[in-house]
Design brief:
The chain is an alpha+beta fold. It is 43% helix and 16% strand. It is globular. It comes from Mycolicibacterium gilvum (strain DSM 45189 / LMG 24558 / Spyr1).
Length: 406
């Protein structure tokens, strides 16, 4: 009987393959991984928030697509790796709005997360939102998106078969993983300069999504146990980091949710085609090196307190008004998830924060977007997305509840 490779092992191979490819494309990524590993090894509390082995191997990727049809293909592809959509994020409401809605594809079971917690934060362009796109530009963008093919239909068909079977024969595994990885390689095809510039006037993210004929890994993020130490260490190595760490402040009590930082987007060589057909060399700054520190997952009540604290001019100054200083008090107050209610067993936050994601995007752009005017008249919401991609989108709170009571 042929050896069978389960989806979790395919996921590990996929994450490793993307890491090798992205490291070859963005060499500073290797420095980020090296510094993260050094800090994790020296950190005393690794076992509390996941084993050192898990934390060091942990990654999340980020990709961007243009339409619900493309997002549906992504959902089918990632399902072969045991990665399912969790949560709905609307980045259009951020202080510096980004014209995308997003979900995150990840394992949903605790055992699967322990085996390999690879996630891919996936954003979709909101072409129908008239606050960003005029009717004429929306029509032209949609026509452009309809004309391109991000994924080989044979790859998606294979992914659907593998997802249904929970894996594939060993003889098919390496070829499938290699094809999936290559689908996210940075294209060397010349970019239509005029079209790219027109979309850049709307948003640099819109240009990165619909200004090219392919998609690519935008960043690949390792996990670190002390993000403040990493920010300092990277700066000391001469790498320019964004101005401030995104997410909750550093506190003396339990660290909650997610903190993120990144090195500034690097100028990467790209080729451009002028209206006359001439091809010239140039650069784009769209990809950056992100790193994250994960804390305990908050309950809905805890999230309300988090939002209140973060709305203050200086969240750190008011943090103690909203959150107690110990895990025991957090657990007793029902503000965070702990396995069996045991404060020594925090449930790690596995998801994302829209404000932080938008903040990372904004910090890596040369110009910020103005706040959008008027109300949202589009259908973009979690139910809409789930219906269009044909996959249930899991509620993160439901997943944390199951872990806490397991």
């Amino acid at each position: 009987m042929a050896e069978f490779v389960e989806s979790c092992e395919l996921r590990a191979q996929f994450a490793a393959g993307l890491s090798r490819m992205y490291g070859a494309e963005v060499p500073a990524y290797h420095t980020l991984v090296e510094v993260s590993s050094l800090i994790n090894t020296a950190f005393p509390g690794a076992l509390r928030l996941g084993s050192l082995e898990r934390v060091t191997a942990e990654r999340h990727g980020a990709i961007r697509v243009g339409s619900a049809a493309e997002l549906a293909q992504v959902a089918d592809l990632f399902s072969a790796f045991g990665m399912y959509p969790v949560g709905f994020y609307d980045l259009r409401d951020a202080a510096s709005p980004i014209p995308v809605v997003s979900t995150a594809f990840r394992p949903i079971g605790q055992e699967e997360l322990a085996r390999n917690p690879f996630r891919v934060f996936t954003s979709m362009l909101t072409v129908a939102d008239g606050r960003f796109f005029s009717a004429d530009l929306s029509t032209r963008v949609q026509r452009f998106l309809d004309s391109r093919q991000l994924f080989d239909p044979a790859l998606i068909a294979a992914a659907q078969r593998i997802a249904a079977a929970g894996g594939c024969p060993a003889r098919d595994a390496s070829g499938f993983v290699a094809a999936a990885v290559s689908a996210f390689a940075l294209s060397r095809e010349p970019i239509d300069r005029a079209w790219y510039d027109e979309l850049s006037a709307v948003s640099a993210v819109a240009a990165d999504i619909a200004g090219v004929t392919s998609t690519h890994i935008n960043h690949l993020t390792p996990r670190v146990l002390d993000i403040d130490a990493l920010q300092q260490a990277m700066t000391e190595r001469g790498i320019t980091m964004i101005d401030r760490i995104q997410g909750p402040p550093r506190v003396d009590g339990p660290q909650v949710l997610l903190r993120q930082t990144s090195f500034r987007a690097l100028a990467e060589p790209r080729r451009f085609r002028s209206p006359s057909g001439e091809v010239t060399d140039g650069t784009l700054r769209v990809r950056f090196g992100e790193v994250e520190q994960r804390g305990v997952a908050l309950t809905r009540a805890g999230r309300e307190r988090y939002d209140a604290a973060m709305s203050a001019p200086d969240p750190a100054a008011v943090w103690q008004r909203h959150f107690p200083a110990t895990d025991a008090e957090m657990a007793a107050s029902g503000l965070a998830y702990y396995i069996g209610g045991d404060p020594s067993r925090p449930v790690v936050y596995e998801d994302f924060l829209p404000a932080s994601a938008a903040g990372i995007f904004r910090s890596n752009l040369d110009t910020a977007s103005a706040a959008v005017q008027g109300g949202d008249t589009t259908e973009y919401c979690q139910d809409w997305m789930a219906g269009r991609i044909g996959h249930h989108i899991h509620d993160p709170y439901d997943l944390y509840e199951k872990v806490a009571h397991s």
